[in-house]
Structure formats: structure tokens, C-alpha cells
Amino acid sequence: NAGISTGGPFQGQDSARIEAMVRVNLWAAIRLTQLVLPTMLASNHGYILNVGSGLGRAAIPMFAPYVATKYGLAGFTDALRRELHRTGVRLTLVLPGWMHTDMITPEVEELVGRYGLSVEHPDFVAERAVLGLVRGEHEIVLGGLLTRLGILAERYAPLLLSIYWRLWMTPEWVSTMSRIGRGETNGNSGR
Q: Which of 31, 66, 137, 178 is deepest in the core (most CB within 10 A)?
């Protein structure tokens, strides 16, 4: 999957950019699946690998539209996996955390590091995705311990995650994340 993102307060995000995010991050995966699925079903065999984001299971502030697309992709993958459970078509969802891309500036990397989040190399994410697909894993969560804890907190104790962000969403976080997706040229979100 390709992916694009914009960070910052929702009210300041461009509606055309949000629409592009929905098309690239969610609609493209749904449509491509529609196109390849008939062939897979006819052969009773196939693999669909969707690359989402840890933000598809745990929402963080300043990325509301991006989070919505990744939650949508996770839900689509989960629902379709259940629908196709006896067809020979397997679905795997990869949930990476922050990744080294052209968009992740040293300032962003330093800030997310101070929040205890790791930044992974895309090659590691790709290798782990292939390994998970071969193993038949339904979901591959990357991004380190805090990403995993965030996902668990979102699922079982969402109030804890809300308190965490109330304490840690500093003006520096807002300012730094507001720069993500502004003027990027490579279409790579970094999340």
C-alpha cells in the first residue's frame, strides 16, 4: 500500500489533502482487492497484505484524518478476513510505527524518540511483513513496546491513553507534527 499523511490540528487541514488521503490510504486498497479477489477465489488461493499503521489501532492527536483512514483499512482487513475464512485467501495486516522516510526530519525523529517511540527502517518493515505473510499471521504490530502498549490501552483502557496525551501533547508536539505532510513530494507518510 502507498500512504500519505498530514499532521496538525484538524481544523487547519486542507480538505483536498484529506480527500487524497482517503483515496490513497483506504480506497486504493479496497479497489485493488476487488480487482484481484476474483482470480484468487477461482484458484482457492491467494495472499493479501495490507500495510496500515499502528494508528489504525491507537489514535493519536494531530492526525485525525490519517487515523480514520488507517482504522478503516484495519476494519476492512478484519472484516474481509472473516468473510473469506474458508476460501484459501489469506489476509495479513501490517501495523508499522514511525518509519525512516524523506518526510521524517531529524527534528521529528528526535521528538518521537523523546516520547519513547522508535523509528524503523522501511526494509525492516518489509522483511517482517513478508515473514508474517509466510507464517500466516493475521496482524503484525511493529513500532516497539510503546506502540504495542498504546494499542492495548486503546482497546482495553482508552481513558489511560487519553490521559497520556493530555499530559504529553505539548506545544512542541503540535508544532512539529503540524509540519508533517506539508509540501512532501514522495507520497510517503512516515507513519
A: 66
Nearest Cα neighbor of 54 from 130, 125, 132 is 125
Query: Angle 21-85-54 (CA atoms, 0-180°, nearest 5)?
Result: 35
pLDDT tens across 101-152, in order?
876 788 888 998 888 888 999 999 999 999 999 899 999 999 999 899 999 9
Q: Which residues contact 125 (CB under 8 A, 6 or more apart)?
A: 51, 94, 96, 99, 142
User: What does the alpha-carbon distance between residue 102 and residue 191 come to, in Å, rounded to a whole number?
Assistant: 12
Question: Which positions are catalytic?
Answer: 66
The C-alpha atoms of residue 159 and residue 15 are separated, in whole angstroms, by: 30
CB atoms under 10 Å from CB of 164, counted, come to 16
Cβ–Cβ under 8 Å, residues 111 and 173: yes
Place of cell 505539548: 170
